Amino acid sequence: MNSEYRQNFTKNLMTTAILLRGIAVSVSLAQRVSQDLFNCLIIIFNIEDKFIALPLLKYQIK
Fold first, then answer.
1. I need a surface site. Which of 13, 26, 49, 59 has the fewest CB within 10 A?
2. pLDDT digits (tens, 9 = 90+) for 39-50
């Protein structure tokens, strides 16, 4: 019974570690995607009825 408990505990621990790693990767990807979207933002200025698009400078949040 003790051996079975230990196996289940180890299996649960590994599953938890894999899930936590997956969450960390997801958060990292989400941050990267939001940074890329921010870098692609465009500010539109209306000057004499002409639209001039100025891309934002890349600003790395660290």
1. 49
2. 666 544 444 545
Token pair belonging to 62: 């660290």
CA atoms of 10 and 36, how far apart (whole Å): 39
If we measure between CA atoms, which residue out of 31, 50, 28 comes closest to residue 39?
A: 31
pTM, 2 dp? 0.47
Cβ-based neighbours of 43, under 8 Å, separated by 6 or more? 53, 54, 55, 56
59 neighbors 38 (Cβ within 8 angstroms)? yes
Across 30-47, b (16+ Cβ under 10 Å) vs e yields eeeeeeeeeeeeeeeeee
Taking the C-alpha atoms of residue 25 and residue 29, their distance in angstroms, rounded to an integer, is 6
